Amino acid sequence: MQNRNRKIKKVVIIGPESTGKSILCEQLAAHYKTTWVKEYAREYLLKNGKAYSFENLYEIAKGQITAEDNAIKNAEAKIVFIDTDMYVMKVWSEFVFNKCDNKILTEILLRDYDLYLLCDTDLPWTKDELREYPDQATREKLFLYYKEEMTEQKTPWVIINGINEMRLAKAIEAVDKIL
Prior knowledge:
The chain is of the alpha/beta class.
């Protein structure tokens, strides 16, 4: 049952590809007995093919926003974890196309979150059919772009690094501080 009078805490997990965002979302959702929002881009690209254009990124952004809004609207717990947000769309767009759709930039300003968890590149890159940047130098460069985005916005954020239980423990510690 929905409770429209209480504020749902929203925690976004961001970072370069293959940094454990989805796994961390799943682990945190299990720990806090809640739901998490999957990265819509994966679903979109698996359905439509991995070749994409600048224009596709706003379509993907809209799908991410819809999934996020639905999860928050239907949340039964006091917290929801979100794998990817508009900052990811911005970094992706600027990195690949050297520009970002103004509608994505506007969504960044309109969305409101309680915490960002920025996943570091200290995990080994894992190949899958959608990942594009296996070299560590590119992954680290992308991490710095995300870090810069975090320093220029108002929501609290924490870098999540380490392996296995250490990574999850850091995330839980950060989340507990906002509950």
